[in-house]
UniProtKB/TrEMBL annotation:
NCBIfam families reported for this sequence: ligase_FadD11 (NF038343)
Domain of life: Bacteria
Keywords, sorted A to Z: Fatty acid metabolism, Ligase, Lipid metabolism
Organism field: Nocardia xishanensis
CDD domains per the UniProt record, alphabetical: VL_LC_FACS_like
InterPro entries in alphabetical order: AMP-binding_CS, AMP-dep_synth/lig_dom, ANL_N_sf
Family (UniProt): Belongs to the ATP-dependent AMP-binding enzyme family.
A Pfam family recorded for this sequence: AMP-binding
Record gene name: fadD11
GO MF terms held by the record: ligase activity
AMP-dependent synthetase/ligase domain span: 11-412
Name of the molecule in the record: Acyl-CoA synthetase
Length: 605
């Protein structure tokens, strides 16, 4: 039997495997679709969109939260031959106008709360399909699905889709300028899915959650596209705050997260152990976590596990660690992964010791998501694994990593000059990442090429490496921006984690959990100072943060300081906080400028 060569053909195959199995569900299962119901709705959506004039080569935009209805709408649009894509729900009208104009879509499928924003954005939109209501001038989903022409030939329509057609657009949340629309073909997508699954296996019925925005390529690939190709069951998580409950409910068998989520899980476990009231239970937890830590230390040093320690870990696992995994809802996970940003090796080590080995992945939208990963049993903590089978890698003289292979994007939509800047004449994608490759082919990401900093003594440094070291040491830190380019020593702007603020204030009896109040609180300052010192202990002296300030604000995704995919906008940060940065380098710092708990000597060459 020939392998499907489009996402439509892949979906039709998996939908027929077990039509009565649940394909998509809400938390708790109150709302769900079997594969039969899912396929029926895909057919109806394709017919309705076809009646609106949507066909092969057109584009359809979706703007909604993580919900069950998303799946048949998105997949139905694919079956017309259209390019279906999602936009971030936080986009302002002028941003929507740019994206819609670049994509060329005349149809938007959205929730009622976004209808007026779509209407007011100024793009040439003919039809708005409303998912959860029917405001005047919009089309309801039921009405859409009932509007197919009598002579609509669903089978012929989806079979006319070609492997080199563009299946989706992924708009990169660039740190400067307008986002670029990455064009991904069916062929690239299916290569990506199969190459990925050859390393981290995916099977029909594997359980996964969808909680990142559906415009984020990580969610599109790990939830939507892996489901279409392999038949996974998705639990939609409409609010990130519901993720812990969703994990306990869904018991995923395959699961991934961005580093911040893993760091929060780690902090929650450590907090619960530290605050355990029963002395006997607390002692057992501390023993188990200490055993886990020693196992992780051996792995981080790439040393074989001592037989006595292995035996002790097995006892700790049976008595305690297995219960901690179950408490997280990750006790049935076959493999876990971390991606979208570098994750501290210490965090990976913590979960390895806990019995949840995490494979760190590396990739980008231009590479259809994941380009490198290794199976958990072969993963080397601190690396992002090896290139997927079928890909080639190369390094330029300045250390930039190049990739060539079937999962490369077609290009940036309507931007030939930017496309040629990224894709050279020999078919290499210039990733913009500085990466080292060891003798066994394992990749280690240093930083973005354009973000490396050189201090006044001429030392090259990776700000991301320094930032990760500090973040790993204290869960109170939400974001931080390291400063040091052409400076005599390294400093940092620190922003508290918005989700941790209220719990911290309640735990410490503080009446005000605002960022301004917490940034000035002596207890918070002391905790951050200890965290910076702990992070510094893992860094070379030239990298260590000598001074820091805690900003009295939270940084929101899509704001001035960080993108929707949580990347720092370093140039706008430097401009916006110029006064705070200069204060960090004043001869006699004071006020809001702080130092690590253990003061460091000034950095010298």
């Amino acid at each position: 039997m020939t392998e499907p060569n489009t996402s439509c053909a892949a979906f039709q195959r998996v939908a027929a495997i077990d039509p009565d199995a649940v394909a998509v569900r809400s938390i708790g299962g109150e709302q769900s679709l079997t594969w039969r119901e899912y396929a029926d709705q895909v057919r109806a959506v394709a017919g309705g969109l076809s009646a609106l004039g949507v066909g092969r080569g057109d584009t359809v935009a979706l703007m909604m939260g993580n919900r069950v209805e998303f799946y048949p709408l998105e997949v139905g649009a694919q079956h017309t031959g259209a390019t279906s894509f999602s936009v971030y729900n936080t986009l302002a009208p002028e941003q929507l106008r740019y994206v819609f104009s670049n994509a060329g879509n005349r149809v938007v499928i959205c929730e009622e709360q976004y209808v007026e924003r779509v209407r007011g954005c100024g793009a040439a939109i003919d039809t708005i399909v409303c998912v959860d209501g029917a405001p005047e001038g919009t089309l309801g989903v039921t009405e859409l699905m009932a509007s197919a022409a009598d002579d609509f030939d669903f089978e012929a329509t989806w079979r006319a889709v070609r492997q080199d057609d563009i299946v989706t657009l992924c708009y990169t949340s660039g740190t400067t300028g307008n986002p670029k629309g990455v064009e991904i073909t069916h062929e690239s997508l299916l290569f990506e899915a199969r190459a990925f699954a050859s390393v981290l296996p995916v099977e029909f019925g594997d359980r996964q959650t969808s909680y990142l925005p559906t415009a984020h390529m990580a969610d599109r690939f790990t939830a939507l596209y892996l489901q279409e190709v392999f038949g996974t069951q998705i639990t939609a998580v409409p609010d990130r705050a519901q993720l812990p409950a969703a994990l306990l409910d869904a018991r995923p068998t395959i699961w991934g997260a961005v580093p911040r989520v893993w760091e929060k899980f780690k902090a929650a476990i450590e907090f619960s152990v530290a605050n355990e009231a029963d002395p006997t239970t607390k002692a057992a937890l501390q023993w188990a976590l200490d055993t886990a830590r020693r196992k992780a230390d051996a792995r981080l040093r790439d040393e074989p596990l001592d037989p006595a320690l292995a035996e002790e870990w097995a006892r700790a696992d049976a008595a305690v660690l297995s219960k901690l995994r179950a408490k997280l809802g990750l006790d049935q996970v076959k493999w876990a992964m971390s991606g979208a940003a570098p994750v501290p090796p210490e965090t990976l080590g913590f979960f390895f010791g806990l019995g949840i080995p995490i494979s760190e992945v590396w990739g980008m939208s231009e590479l259809t998501c994941v380009a490198s990963v290794s199976p958990p049993q072969q993963a080397r903590l601190g690396t992002v694994g090896k290139l997927l089978p079928g890909l080639e890698g190369a390094l330029t003289d300045d250390g930039e990593f190049l990739v060539r292979g079937p999962l490369l994007m077609r290009g940036y939509r309507k931007e030939p000059e930017k496309t040629s800047d990224a894709l050279d004449a020999e078919g290499w994608l210039h990733t913009g990442d500085i990466i080292t490759v060891d003798a066994d082919g394992y990749l280690k990401v240093v930083d973005r090429k354009k973000e490396l900093i050189i201090n006044s003594a001429g030392k090259n440094m990776s700000p991301a490496n320094i930032e990760n070291a500090v973040k790993a040491a204290t869960p109170l830190v939400g974001s931080l921006a390291v400063i040091g380019d052409r400076r005599p020593f390294t400093t940092a702007l620190i922003v508290l984690d918005a989700e941790s603020a209220a719990p911290y204030a309640a735990q410490h009896g503080l009446p005000d959990s605002s960022p301004a109040a917490l940034a000035a609180d002596p207890g918070v300052i002391a905790a951050i100072a200890r965290g910076v010192a702990a992070g510094n202990a893992t860094l070379s002296r030239v990298e260590q943060v000598k001074r820091f300030t805690i900003l009295p604000v939270f940084w929101e995704p899509g704001g001035d300081e960080i993108t929707l995919t949580m990347k720092l906008r370093r140039k706008p940060i430097a401009e916006k906080y110029a006064d705070e940065i200069e204060a960090l380098y004043a001869d006699r710092p004071g006020g809001s400028v702080h130092e690590p708990t253990e003061a460091l000597d000034p950095v010298v060459s």
